[in-house]
Amino acid sequence: MASPSPSGEASLCECGRMSITGSHVMALANDVPAIWAWHQSWLLATMLSRLFSEVLPDVQRLAADWADDNDNDDCKAKGEDHQSCHLGDDDLDEPQEGSSRAESEMAGDDDDDEAEEEEEECGDENAEDKPKKRGPKKRKMTAARVERSKVRRLKANARERTRMHDLNSALDNLRKVVPCYSKTQKLSKIETLRLAKNYILALGEILRNGKRPDVVTYVQMLCKGLSQPTTNLVAGCLQLNTRNFLTEPCSDGARLHVPGSPFSVHAYSYRCSRLSSPHYQPGGGPLHLRGPSYGSGYEAMYPPGGTSPDYSSPDYEGQHSPPVCLSGRQQESSETDRNYHYSMHYSGLSTSRPGHSLPFGPPGGRGGGGAHSENIPPFHDVHLHHDRAPPYEDLNAFFHN
DNA sequence: TAGGCCATCTGGTCCT
DNA sequence: AGGACCAGATGGCCTA
Question: Any atom of strand C under 7 A from CB of A145?
Answer without folding.
Answer: no
